[in-house]
């Protein structure tokens, strides 16, 4: 029986992961902003046979992270997998005109993750087991003009996790950085994404569950994004700045 | 997000713009939005209705498939409650390991609970269990003109009856309660019987239907003369022992629509002959998985594309018992004479279990279903001949499969349509409904 903490539990990718874990008996501690949606996700997992606890929290309230994690450990006793999946998709153009909005979006997608992981990492390190799986993004591999605010926040998360991985490795704790490409979710609804590259949340979830099982460090999902990003990060800066990607 | 949805037959070819519904709260918002814009929409599940009953009059549909959560489940009693966009396949994945199966299932598991209820679908066990709606004690209905309703035989009974088989017109079904059927194994004890004529079919059906929960027949609709009416009768029961295993076998896919239909005179004759001869004469028993038994076509994803860009129509009718044999023979003769027909011609006897829905399709008698490549006038002429036979025999067509029936035929065969007009939601309308009521 796996004991699983999910932050941002109403996100489509998190839900799809949870359903896969629920198929093999699991206890969940779900954290999300919206109580009604969180309740609907919890009901779904409970009907599938899981034991579910919920906790309403806006992750931007850093001062409440410790109390949330206390409640989680009180409910689960131990955390085998912590999936950090919360986030928003900023409007890049708006962020270019509004510093406050830019900082807010950076907080949503970057700082809140770093704040949470700082506390969580210490608890996992002390217990010397488990997995911290963090949904970053291919967008964090190299800043592009079309969404560099999101990219910068995810890049910070990726780098933070890289360092954390090296530290927690000694304690036997896995840190998995997940880099999805384009996923067909409510978050990306309305974006003109290329259909051929668009993956379903369940396909991404299947890869995530597998990567947790295999104790991987970094996951590109679907797999071909590893190749795409390999090319993108090697394009010389002189050319890259002219591509307008 | 794919926003070009089509009906399963891809005819009539009206692409639908999807308004995705991710949370139950989105429904009220979408309806309120229509009210304020004086527009209409139609709920759309997984797009397995063949004709235009799933196409909105406005070509804007409330896409319900993302609403795919379970709400509650009692695995002691098998009573589940789930959002309307959950598919039968998703129910099977969760329910089978716990010893439960769908009480009624059509020939595809890729339909939503909301769609199953709105079309009051039937399956191979109609003669024992009746329609899908009989196993839905309660459901939720969200309307544009009042607060959300819970519907059952005792709560809002008029909306309960009108919504079962109500083609999505009475409101948006947001959740469905379903009483599952207990099973000991997910395997099926199947019996195949080859028959040489329609008379033989009706004799075998009378003999074996009572002792088999699931029965259906495949008919060689191209055979003429001595071989006319030949086919395979397939019966089955849930096995008493064996594994409880969800089956999701490797699938074939038709990845794109070929520029022309792969279904023609030659390929059909070849298939029908081969399929008939692949079954040995006499009776044969086997124990097989539920997937090949119930869902042989689901193995080929997007099989509807083989009909090419013009699409296809399914013709499904029900004929009352008294005229079943004669009318079925007349229908098959007309189809064979037109040198048209399908590799999927299905014949089954419905039972007399009454359906709770106002506009439910099944009636005590026989039902025949065939697919025809869409060929303009040729198809229209054939369908006109078939319609005349069905009308004469006191039968009716199935709205979920339909893209052609006349308003007069619909209103004659479904006299409860007048009640439906008063109970339908003011901001919901379909191309089918507009066609048959005006």
Description:
With 245 residues, chain A is of the alpha/beta class. Chain A has a single domain (2-243), classed as 3-Layer(aba) Sandwich (Rossmann fold), CATH 3.40.50. Chain A has helices spanning 12-22, 35-47, 65-76, 92-97, 99-127, 148-169, 201-213, 224-234, 237-243, and strands spanning 2-7, 26-32, 51-56, 81-84, 131-135, 174-180, 218-221. In chain A, strands 3-2-1-4-5-6-7 form a 7-stranded parallel sheet, sandwiched between helices. The longest helix of chain A has 29 residues, at 99-127. Chain A starts with a strand and ends with a helix. Chain B has 438 residues and is α+β, with helices and mostly antiparallel strands. Chain B has 2 domains: 70-183, Uridine Diphospho-n-acetylenolpyruvylglucosamine Reductase, domain 3 (2-Layer Sandwich); 187-405, Alpha-Beta Plaits, CATH 3.30.70.2520. Chain B contains 13 helices and 20 strands. Chain B has helices at 24-37, 88-95, 113-118, 126-129, 157-163, 198-208, 265-278, 290-294, 321-337, 377-392, 407-413, 417-423, 431-437, and strands spanning 17-20, 42-44, 60-63, 70-74, 79-83, 100-101, 139-142, 149-151, 172-179, 181-182, 187-195, 214-219, 231-238, 252-253, 283-289, 300-301, 312-320, 346-350, 365-373, 396-397. In chain B, the strands form 5 sheets. In chain B, strands 15-11-13-12-18-19-17-20 form an 8-stranded antiparallel sheet. In chain B, a hairpin with a 6-residue loop joins strand 7 and strand 8 (149-151). In chain B, helix 9 runs antiparallel to helix 10. Chain B starts with 16 loop residues before the first strand and ends with a helix. The mean pLDDT of chain B is 94. The A-B interface holds A 23, 36-37, 40-41, 43-44, 46-49, 184, 186, 188-190, 195 and B 1-2, 20, 22-25, 66, 69-73, 75, 80-82, 93-94, 98.
